[in-house]
Amino acid sequence: MDRFVYTASASRIVFGADSIDQLPAEIERLGARRALVLCTPNQRGQAEAIADRLPGRVAFIFDEAAMHVPIEIARKARALASELKADCALAVGGGSTIGLGKAIALESGLPIIAVPTTYAGSEVTPIYGITEGGLKKTGRDLRVLPGVVVYDPKLTLSLPLDLTVTSAINAMAHAAEGLYAHDGNPVIALMAEEGIRACAASLQPLREDPRDLSARSLALYGAWLCGTVLGAVSMGLHHKLCHTLGGTFDLPHAQVHTVVLPHALRYNASAAPEAMSRIARALGVADAPMGFFELARMHGAPVSLKAIGMPANGLEKAAELAASNQYPNPRPLEIAALRALLDHALDGAPPTP
After folding, report:
1. Which of 54, 14, 49 is nearest to 34 (CA)?
2. Predicted confidence (pLDDT) per residue in 213-237, tens digit
3. Terminus-to-terminus CA distance in the chain, angstroms?
4. What is the number of H-type helices and E-type strands within the chain?
5. Beta strands 112-116 and 88-93: pairing type?
6. In 3-state terms, what secondary structure has residue 149?
7. Spatial separation of the C-alpha atoms in residues 199 and 261, rounded to whole Å
8. What are the φ and ψ backbone dihedral angles of 266, each rounded to 5 degrees?
């Protein structure tokens, strides 16, 4: 607490129900005229509905965004943006779509307007990730930070409950690691604890009624805080493991975060007691790792890597990749201990000490 550095995000945040109505004015503020609209194939309809709000200002709707941002799709989208002389990217969707916008901006500097429809948090970070040759490479560059983020909880009403739960736990993972980041600070710690509290508190009401707008607003508010944490401080073992598992074995992003988080926290628990105490307080439980495990199980989310497609014969490779290129983490990285962590996660065993 005596010394810290805090750098605030430069993103403009427009939050609230019906805030999508302000999108034309936000594009006008940027001085943009030709938006390349990005989405996944499944969200084409939602992207078209938003494009209809921008008559004469849409250059094209590119609906090939994919999980983990494959380099081939990134190159195709970059070439299209250049060919169409697009002057902004409008990313409608979750982390895959916003990640594609970042891949375009990384080389072109094209400004990004993000319209999140999940709780990924990527929209408020300067972090990008691109997968090439089976390896997901990540980095930080302010060019990829969206300039405007429009958070409209009404756009999340149709998010299926299973994805709602895993996406919210994915968001909470950012905040959890932010609480033991080597470059953390008290401002980020406040955001992290509040983000976990808000996301966790939204899940039971959404289980009862997935179209509960107040609960959707609470989840989106929490996701914004958690994403801000992700963008401000360094992540540790949990994120390294998830990028390794997701990029190398093509596992679904939010689900792999959901499965791995309790085990990564257990690995670091003895080396980060204050962080564990704050996480437990935010969740309203006695033990942070078990709290996340039970939260996932209670709401029907996967708790084993096996259930989301992880091959058992890939665990050794995953442990070796996660231990390579040492990075800050509360507890030193040990291949044998990492392999034990992955063995537990594969089978869905509780994160016991």
Report:
1. 54
2. 999 999 999 999 999 999 999 999 9
3. 29
4. 13, 8
5. parallel
6. strand
7. 15
8. -65, -40
